[in-house]
Each structure stands twice: as structure tokens, then as C-alpha cells.
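G., the chain you wanted modeled:
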Amino acid sequence: MRSTNLVIIRGYTGAEAKSFDNGKVAKISVATNRVWTDRKSGEKKEVADWVTLTILNEKTAKWAIENVKKGDAIYAEGRVADNSYEKNGKTHYSTDIIVSVLDRLTPRAGDDE
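Predicted structure as C-alpha cells:
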């Protein structure tokens, strides 16, 4: 059996894309929201979940750095990757989405319709 590691994210960017490795890599923080109704109170609740998108494809990273702005709606496909690194003698863990497809859903003046 083949296994699949596929994640689809539709959300809003929290800031402009950050550039790393001379623009060859980009990272974008994206908020997705969950909405539900509390069973006990009947009250509608909403929580934002933040994920980090990591773009390793140089062409896509450059496009994201030039075109993705804070508050933009985006669509991304990728895979989940766990990472760890040492800082000040302490191990830090993170979970990133390694992006293979990225699209801005927020139209800009001059975009093709």
C-alpha cells in the first residue's frame, strides 16, 4: 500500500512572506479558522490555528516574496514535515507544511480575471 502525506491549506496570511537563503526559500504564516457550536451553551465559537508554510522551490519562493501580502487569502498544497533545531543549548521542535502548490486567492488590480 502506498502512503500519502498531503495537506491542503486555505487561509489568510499573517504577514508578508519572509525570505531566506537569498530568496531561494520563503516562509509564510497562515491562519485557518475553526467554527463550532458549544454543545452545552449553544454559543458559536471560533478559533484560529496558525501554520507555517515553507516554500523550497526557488521560483515559487520568489513569486511569494513579491506577491503575497499580509491578509491575503491563499491556497496551498504540500506535505507535513517535523523539524528540530538547537538554540542556546535547548532543542526546539516545529511542524511545517512544505509547499508544492501555492496560489493567491485575493485578486489584485491588473490580475487576469
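The mean pLDDT is 93.

Shout if anything looks off.
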